[in-house]
Amino acid sequence: MSQDSHQESFIKKYIFSQDHKVIGIQYGLLSLFFLLFGFFLMMIMRWQLAYPDQVIPIIGPLMFENGILSPDMYNSFGAMHGTIMIFLGVVPIVVGAFGNYLVPLQIGAPDMAFPKLNMVSFWSYFIGGFVMMYGFVLPGGAANSGWTSYPPLSDLATAGQTVWLIGMVFLITSSLLGSMNIIVTIVQLRVKGLTYMKLPLFVWSQLVTSFLLVLAFPPLEAAAVFQLMDRLAGTSFFLPTGLIHGGAIVDVAGGGSPILWQHLFWFLAHPEVYVLILPAMGVVCEIIANNTRKPIWNYKTMVYSLIFLGFMSFAVWAHHMFQTGMGQGMSAFFQITTMIISVPSVVILSGLFITLWGGRIRFNTPMLFALAFLPMFGIGGLTGLPLGLAPSDIPLHDTYYVIGHFHYVVAPGTIFAIFAGIYFWFPKVTGKQLNETLGKIHFWFSFVFMNGIFMPMFLQGIAGVSRRLADGGTTYAHAANTIHYNEFMSWSAWCLGLAQLPFIINMIMTLIRKRKDKVDPNPWKATTIEWTDTTSPPLGHGNFDTVPSVYRGPYEYSVPGESEEFTPQSKKDVNSENK
Amino acid sequence: MSHDNIQDHIKVYRNIFLALLTFTVLTVAISYVHFDLVWVGILVGLLIAGIKGYLVAANFMHLNNEKKMIYWILILTASFLVLLFFMPTLWDNNIAHSETTVLFDDPGGREYLEKSSH
Amino acid sequence: MQIPYNEKLRPDTGLYNAKLGIWLFLASEIMLFGGLFSAYVLLRSSNADFMMHQHYLNVPLATLNTIILITSSVTMVMAWVSLKLNDLKKYKLYMLLTLLCSVGFLIVKFFEYSAKFEHHLYPSTDNFLGTYFTLTGLHGLHIIGGMVVMIYLVGPGVKMWETNKERFTNRVEVIGLYWHFVDLVWIFLFPALYLL
Ligand code: HEM
Ligand SMILES: [Cu+2]
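^ Those are the sequences you sent over. The predicted structure of the assembly is below.
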């Protein structure tokens, strides 16, 4: 099939490409850039937290008035850190990059079901990112009402908020189109023999994630439209009557409800955290099965847990709102659903631990990251339980405990899974394998410093330090004995930045180094069919010279009686004729 | 789909069209009727809208004869839609009967007030 | 690059790709309008004076618009039936009629809006009018979006009929599904805003 890819112009091949592999790489590069950028904002903020109101060395005088990150700028950087990390970093990389590149290959499809739409969703993401960034040059700076954009604050905030909302509309459009495409691809383009119960868990995780995106994002879009109307047309959907701002009553009709925003926002944003974590689980499943050389424990249970997790994630949103006076009935309902949803997460995590049992584990870089994911996600999940119960949530709400909790899920959790995925599929994408020594250096330093940043946050939070404080809580007498952790955490964060250098150097070196000998197309001895596709690399439009058929499940490692210790999904089952 | 079959379809479309027009007139007419209980009027209005919606979805959008996959997607969507509607109807800060709009209704406080007034 | 099941039905699902795609899109639209409607319910139920300005809305004009939209749904489905009957001329006629209806709808909407502005009734006047303008405005945008696709499908897009009849018919079915959905939203918007 790759033969019929007649000469395409550079622009059509690499810029406005409709090839899922090229689009996946585009997504990957742009979202890695945004992840780095969001981290960069945080490194600057961490200076302000460790050394409040001292001039930032080197970059301070270049970037800021007086060389200090002012409280307003701190708010803006914090809001943009959250927004960028979630909507411009993690979601595009796990769904846009990994999903786009791998799903068609793992199900044996020639491309996504709608290649043109795929291109549109990437460019919609690009525009959304650009619009968001534009906020930084506006008077008053970028959005500064937190990534949650709670009104009435956000309704009355500077112009950056308008740009944030418009950017969100583009990003939502991008995610909606992308996830519909993934669902249709998985449902319609599976190759012969690949039934649902033979899908790799990564594909399952993408399917569930895409459903979450399709059904949860629209209510936020509705909310964004309302907030845009509030800001531009003077409506008061989110503004109550008699609101006082800057010493005067705000001149609007009033009668609106700030709580309304919180509902619509969290109706998206809780499923969104599963969008951040499910694909990461999928990646980790693939890598763990591959490197323990064992089938995943109880494949079907894992699948049903994923589905149940996705389904339940729509029924827990108000556990973010225990402070709003929702009444005991509602509060009980959402506490119960939150406890229920923790069950499938525990099942999945335990399943992965059980899979390790008795395996001949290969400790390569992807596996190290995947292994680290398990306890890190475990800590993140367990520390979430007190937040799901109103009595303990009320004192912990909006403290650094919350920041510690969800960062354990998304930073040493999802980000480690992303690293694992990059190391694992790099040979698939480029035909070259990343250097193991540099990879291990990257892993160990990242692992240590990640924990150095986030572990002390639990203690600070329990001591009562609020989040979103530009001075890191120096004025909090009641938490005085935890404030000095800030310096340690900040140094950990900067060292974490340094620890990414081996990774970046590794990628660049590997890419520019010329290798004469062709690498093995299946370097990890994996079973899923993307590794049997030999048409790419090098990059060319079209997958699979001969379309494979699938005869078996995705994780047939060390099957007794097979000639090799791994049995590719496309290997014909000799017994199948007899059955 | 054979030709006769399609001729049948066309007839169905015509009938649905007439039904929709009738219900439109009906719903406007009923809106002029005064119901003592406001919610009865709302219920009747929604009922008629529901019937019209069903007619469109079942016939023009062919939902009366669609593939299983589509039904599953719609059932999934409908169940989340119910949850979304959960939000205004069951919320305790429903302050429909208060004179003014209060930003944060505090049920604990209200209970306290009620108790202390006895 | 040939994507399977663009025009043929996949045996196990019985669907072609775009049909599944449009239904997923409509599912997301259901959630979008669901969010808008439930916000309306919340705002309305938490404010006793919410409907204060409802009597300014023009019921006869809105009734007219309802009839126009219902008619356009019928012409749309007839356009698709005409293709099934292999009659391109009739298809074009019905498609143009549908377009005509949508233009009519927008014109009526324009008169409604300008009458409101003349009476100094703006989205900012109160939350009922805010909801009215936002919901009907978004619905209007959906109408315009549908019109753009329809113009393409009677204009340059019709070329596909020569090369790939099946796929073209599928495209018309898909825009039809979208159009009926927009009609369906109006069926609920009309009583919710104007009557109840
Ligand atoms: C790995 C490096 C990271 C570091 C050092 C870091 C650090 C922080 C800190 C200290 C805060 C609290 C700021 C404050 O309350 O004043 C914060 C907030 C936040 N972070 Fe991160 N973070 C990192 C990665 C991530 C990732 C990967 C995500 C998401 C996928 C993320 C999402 C958020 C969000 C949503 C907030 C809340 C922003 C708000 O208050 O509106 N962070 N981060
Ligand atoms: Cu949540």
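The longest strand of chain A covers residues 244-245. The pocket of copper (II) ion (ligand 2) is lined by residues A 270, 273, 316, 319-320 (CB under 6 Å).

Shout if you want it in another format.
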